[in-house]
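Q: Please design a sequence for this.
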């Protein structure tokens, strides 16, 4: 789906973060867009110009769309990544909510001191995360395949899980490495399917290197 002249503009910081699922969907669809990346120094002067004072913001034909979950659903529907019918859309939405739940506890760690973080991180790694992964694995077994959460084709659920685990869990918060998935055959397959997709693989190979990590203060 090469639209020729870019009709989309995605604005976010120069990190993967909340905008990366959208970038992966653009890559998957072969759709051109303007990938505007702003610095943290630039953000205070730009904040008031956004609808809710937050990023990312997606512009499409003069409309500003904010909230990453809304952006993800909007692009998924445009690029045929939101299921073939109402039932599949429901399942995809459910997986997405589980992915958001995976990082919510970790976001709270940014407000506590390092002496308290390690114990909480250990509890999350050994108790909360395995429960979430087990539930997602069971859902993929029931409704999908070894490469997809729902049916036998790529969806937002697959792309969002890959980004949530690869960036949020593994890279940014450094909860664990890929071995966290060793007992979850379907989840491993989903990650492999996403990162080996032709268009997405090209994007992963050329995207800017993200050096930003969660720092335990």
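A: Design:
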């Amino acid at each position: 789906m090469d639209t020729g002249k870019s009709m989309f503009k995605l604005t976010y910081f120069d990190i993967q973060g909340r905008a990366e699922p959208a970038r992966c969907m653009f890559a998957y669809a072969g759709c051109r867009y303007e990938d505007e990346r702003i610095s943290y120094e630039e953000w205070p002067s730009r904040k008031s110009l956004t609808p809710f004072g937050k990023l990312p913001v997606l512009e499409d034909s003069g409309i500003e769309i904010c909230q990453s979950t809304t952006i993800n659903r909007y692009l998924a529907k445009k690029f045929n990544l939101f299921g073939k019918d109402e039932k599949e859309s429901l399942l995809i939405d459910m997986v997405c909510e589980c992915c958001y739940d995976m990082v919510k506890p970790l976001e709270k760690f940014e407000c506590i001191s390092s002496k308290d973080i390690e114990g909480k991180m250990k509890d999350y790694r050994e108790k909360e995360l395995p429960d979430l992964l087990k539930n997602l694995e069971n859902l993929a077994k029931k409704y999908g395949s070894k490469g997809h959460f729902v049916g036998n084709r790529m969806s937002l659920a697959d792309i969002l899980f890959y980004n949530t685990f690869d960036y949020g869990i593994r890279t940014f918060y450094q909860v664990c490495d890929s071995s966290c998935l060793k007992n979850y055959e379907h989840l491993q397959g989903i990650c492999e399917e996403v990162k080996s997709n032709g268009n997405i693989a090209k994007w992963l190979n050329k995207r800017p290197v993200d050096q930003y990590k969660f720092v335990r203060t």
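Q: Thanks. Anything notable?
A: The first strand starts at residue 8 and ends at 13. The chain has a mean pLDDT of 92.
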